[in-house]
Design goal:
Blueprint: E1 5-17, E2 20-26, E3 38-45, E4 48-58, E5 67-73, H1 79-86, E6 93-100, E7 112-118, H2 123-132, E8 140-146, H3 155-164, E9 168-174, E10 184-185, E11 202-208, H4 210-223, E12 231-235
Parallel strand pairs: 7-8, 7-11, 8-9, 9-10, 11-12
Antiparallel strand pairs: 1-2, 1-6, 2-5, 3-4, 3-6
Length: 237
Amino acid sequence: MPTPSYTTTCTENTKIARDIFELRFTKPEGLKFLPGQYLLWDVPLLEDGSDIQTRAFSIASSPEEKDMLFVVKILEGGRASMWVESGLKVGDTVRMQGPFGRFLLDRNSGKDWLLVATSTGIAPYRSQLVSFLKDETRRIDLLLGVRSEEDLFWTEEFTAMARKYSHFFFHPALTKPSADWKGHTGRVQTLFEKIVQDFARVQVYACGNPEMTKDVKKICMERFGMTKGDVHVEGYI
């Protein structure tokens, strides 16, 4: 069975942090996805629009929201980065395929969730939190790691979620903070014991830098004795 493909229109392309762009697209009729899944975009070479390659991006919006939301981290020399930063304009049409992916939260386990992300690895969690927070009662901790205050984004939204839902907690962490920073410091994988009291009662999800996700899996299983079924990772840059 062929993978469904859709043509969608860009409605927003905005820089929201030092090297982060937020993109919105119209939701194609008939597109159905699960929170945590991703789409493959057709990305043209900036110098030659006929040269097309696909790139994967997690859907940050929930299935119930009207538009589709994505975030893109700008990497020097990256095809998608150059296109997003200098080529993609509001009103442009983009072909997307999917959805794909099994980075889905286990809602049947009854265990608490520790959601760990670096940078744009937070995208699937936004989709999941918007979709599930209102119906969940388990404790949910979201740990986001970036370099400095200039790299933070969506903090106001997640802080508002934490104020609204007493079972949700948002923990931004910086590896190179300014002297004024009052929150967590250090790599996310060094902060688990400041957040989790009992690792037998939690499922850990990690999304973002591949080295981080590899470390998270090793630490959780070897140091904290967690089972493979309670540690879920998805590495991407």
